[in-house]
Design a protein that fits this description.
Oligomer: heterodimer
Structural class of chain A: alpha+beta
CATH topology of the largest domain in chain B: FAD/NAD(P)-binding domain
Distance between the termini of chain A: 91 Å
Strand order of the largest sheet of chain B: 6-5-15-16-17-14-18
Strand content of chain A: 25-35%
Structural class of chain B: alpha+beta
Shape of chain A: elongated
CATH class of the largest domain in chain A: Alpha Beta
Strand order of the largest sheet of chain A: 11-10-9-14-13-12
Number of strands of chain A: 14
Helix content of chain A: 25-40%
Number of helices of chain B: 13
Number of helices of chain A: 6
CATH architecture of the largest domain in chain A: 2-Layer Sandwich
Largest sheet of chain A: 6 strands, antiparallel
Shape of chain B: globular
CATH superfamily of the largest domain in chain A: GAF domain
Distance between the termini of chain B: 68 Å
CATH architecture of the largest domain in chain B: 3-Layer(bba) Sandwich
Largest sheet of chain B: 7 strands, mixed
Order of helices and strands of chain A: EEEEEEHEEHHHEEEHEEEH
Radius of gyration of chain A: 24 Å
Strand content of chain B: 15-25%
Largest interface: A-B, 27 and 28 residues
Number of strands of chain B: 21
Chain lengths: 289, 446
């Protein structure tokens, strides 16, 4: 910590507080960035990044509940703490001081509103507008390329035996449509087996990575899960390192949950249509007979 | 229907003085006007270049920003950057002839900032740092204020509206003039000549001196602590050494303060004990600033208000905090309530008077401090209580908090006085005084 620095110094990755902690302190970021993360089955997900000059951790002061998320330094950072007693005493003397907190909360509500609208819009579009698996896969990949930057995107679906994955739809520089993954094999096979999303910004370092013709450096792979069944995976890759962020993971996960419902519906619909066709065919033959 | 003395779209405010009071006023006036949907122009008249080294670019004070002001500014969205903060302070060292004691911040954070008001000491050596006053001026400009490096030397009324002049040239017709000048400038005369009843405040003289040391020496000898001295010498009521980058600033309060007082202070054995070597210290930069000790009775009239050091400020401590409160109170009054005398009386004057009243408690506190510094038994008792409090991990640290709040300007003097009337604190003090009684003796030296 240098001479001119105020507050508390945090090293990269150091936690300031964790989800569930009791606290009576809010913070102002003096320098650097603080990631706000929530734990999930698929590991910690970053739900916000707080930049210098912004306040955070104020929710526990107002609702007196445990921390709703964890705060972790994203790179070296410094924070200044303001305890409940001092904050409320200061605000009671000058209520205009609450403007900054109200402004921060308003911004957050606005961002959340926009995210909810975008997610719902995409989910309803994918669930309601398409009837075939191919149509759904094309729509998902087109939409994903608008919201997450990746060189290649693909959707792999489980084959009928449930042991292998094959590419159903792909977009990108050189889409490798013919690749096949066994359950547990490669990154996609691993996600297919475990049902856990993977974000990998230096793919070569991972033992599961199977190099292909493309010089893939970063991978984001999310399962297409419907209830307890894994239908396949959404795969995004890039030829550059450090391409994907936790925000990207969150966006793809939100979108994949809707896509999985639509794909399952399309598969059921397709099976129903096949069954109907075969029943009609059978009935026709019976009549002729 | 609007009163004719309210600020409407197109209103022009002249701020005479670009120190913290003037810039805080400008920042909050512009913010508040924007929130109210008013379009106003704020022009800051400040001829001083705050980037210059030495007294020419400096508004002459110890340059300490209290914990509460740092936090309040952060809530306002004004987060002091590392380029402005010379050193983050996390503790306070009290030195007496009978020992020293360290008081840590409860949060163990660096919660106090030391800054240079100008471009640093004359002939500054070492790392480049930004001036605090220049930083605030830049913030005000960022908010939309205009800066004119012009010295206003006359203000007169034309059709009941103030007109500002510089070297007999008419500069501006203003809807409001804000006097935010320091006591070390001659601008007070300009406002006295406006004949609305303003007279410059009563002052006393302090001493501020800067001494160069290398970073390692400062880290070893001063750390991240303010060093305060309560010593039983007639002319030196209070001394403090504040570390800043590769300088330390010595601030001295007392009677008959001259340059020799600084030499006398550094020749005192208790002070010499904490200094890096036993040589003679020659300040790289030195000034004898005037300090406000009694606010003027009248500080506003129709379309004019005087705030900050030129009006009502905190006694000896937290002048920058007072600049914030006064500047903001004047800005809120002007934008929300109008610029007529009654609006200032009903709103701004509440903050102004509170500071005046609080300074009575401040005078009482400094009187009590004077008694302590001259009385060995009380001083040793107080030291024992603080050492005892600092030695234990938990529990309330009443004496430590009181001394911290008083010397750092973290709380109002009234709150500090009231906290002193705590039975546990007084009983603890009595107990330690009785224990130390055998040491006995008191009296003032020299």
């Amino acid at each position: 910590m240098k001479n001119g620095e105020l507050g508390k110094a945090l090293a990269n990755g150091e936690y300031l507080f964790r989800e569930g902690d009791q606290s009576e302190v809010m913070y102002v970021v003096q320098e650097g960035k603080i990631g706000i993360t929530k734990s999930s089955d698929q590991g910690d997900i970053t739900i916000a990044t707080i930049n210098a000059g912004e306040v955070f951790g104020e929710m526990s002061l107002f609702d007196k509940m445990a921390r709703s998320a964890s705060a972790v330094a994203d790179g070296d950072a410094r924070v200044l703490s303001i305890d409940r007693k001092k904050l409320f005493t200061t605000i009671s003397k000058d209520p205009t001081l609450a403007f900054k907190i109200i402004e921060t909360l308003s911004k957050r509500v606005r961002v959340l509103d926009e995210e909810i609208i975008a997610i719902n819009k995409n989910k309803s579009a994918v669930v309601q507008s398409f009837f075939t698996v191919d149509q759904i896969c094309d729509f998902v990949l087109t939409t994903l390329s608008d919201i997450v930057h990746a060189d290649n995107t693909s959707i792999m679906l489980a084959d009928t035996d449930g042991k292998t994955l094959s590419i159903k739809s792909a977009k990108g520089l050189q889409a490798e449509n013919k690749m096949l993954f066994e359950k547990g094999g490669g990154i996609a096979g691993s996600v297919f087996e475990t049902g856990r999303a993977v974000i990998m910004n230096r793919a070569e370092a991972d033992m599961r990575f199977q190099p292909g013709e493309l010089q893939i450096k970063a991978i984001l792979c999310v399962p297409l899960a419907y209830r307890d069944e894994i239908l396949g995976v959404v795969n995004l890759s890039s030829t550059s390192e450090d391409m994907f962020t936790s925000d990207d993971l969150l966006k793809v996960q939100s979108f994949a949950s809707g896509a999985a419902i639509a794909i399952q519906n399309a598969l059921c619909c397709s099976a129903l249509m096949n069954a109907t066709d075969s029943a009609v065919q059978h009935a026709t033959m019976m009549n002729r007979g | 229907m609007h009163s004719p003395l309210t600020l409407e779209d197109g209103a022009r405010i002249a701020v005479v003085g670009g120190g913290p009071t003037g810039t805080f006023f400008s920042i909050f006036a512009l913010k508040m006007a924007r929130m109210m949907g008013k379009e106003i122009t704020v022009t800051i008249f400040e001829p001083k270049d705050f980037t210059r080294e030495g007294p020419a670019g400096c508004n002459r004070c110890g340059g300490l920003i209290s914990e509460i002001l740092i936090q309040t500014l952060a809530l306002e969205g004004i987060v002091l950057p590392g380029s402005v903060v010379q050193k983050g302070i996390d503790s306070f060292m009290l030195h007496t002839d009978h020992g020293s004691t360290l008081i840590q911040t409860p949060s163990h954070e660096r919660t106090i900032a030391t800054v240079y008001r100008g471009g640093g000491p004359r002939g500054k050596t070492g790392e480049e740092k930004e001036s605090f006053d220049q930083y605030l001026l830049d913030r005000a400009i960022h908010e939309g204020a205009l800066h004119e490096p012009v010295k206003i030397d006359r203000i007169q009324y034309a059709n009941k509206q103030p007109v500002l002049f510089s070297r007999n040239t008419e500069i501006m017709h203003a809807d409001l003039v804000v006097g935010a000048f320091g006591l070390n400038s001659t601008t007070a005369e300009v406002f006295e000549d406006m004949e609305f009843g303003y007279t410059r405040p009563k002052t006393t003289t302090g001493a501020v001196a800067e001494f160069f040391f290398d970073h390692e020496t400062i880290a070893t000898h001063f750390g991240h602590s303010i060093h305060s001295f309560l010593l039983p010498y007639k002319n030196i009521r209070l001394g403090a050494i504040i570390p800043k980058g590769n300088y330390v600033t010595a601030c001295i309060l007392g009677t008959d303060i001259r340059k020799k007082t600084v030499d006398d202070f550094f020749s005192l054995p208790t002070v010499r004990n904490i200094m890096p070597d036993r040589g003679i210290y020659d300040p790289g930069c030195f000034c004898l600033p005037k300090l406000n000790v009694a606010a003027p009775r009248t500080a506003f009239d129709d379309r004019v208000v005087v705030c900050g050091d030129a009006g009502s400020t905190r006694l000896y401590k937290d002048g920058l905090g007072a600049a914030y409160y006064m500047g903001k109170a004047a800005a809120n009054t002007a934008i929300l309530h109008g610029v007529h005398r009654q609006a200032f009386r009903d709103n701004f004057y509440t903050t102004y008077r509170n500071t005046v009243v609080d300074n009575f408690f401040g005078k009482y506190l400094f009187l009590v401090t004077d008694i302590y510094r001259r009385n060995k038994v009380l001083l040793k008792g107080m030291l024992s209580v603080i050492q005892n409090e600092q030695g234990r991990a938990g529990g309330k640290k009443l004496m430590s908090s009181m001394i911290w709040d008083m010397f750092t300007g973290n709380k109002k003097f009234k709150e500090v006085v009231l906290s002193a009337f705590d039975c546990r604190l007084l009983l603890g003090l009595c107990k330690h005084c009785i224990t130390n009684m055998t040491c006995g003796g008191n009296g003032e030296k020299r």
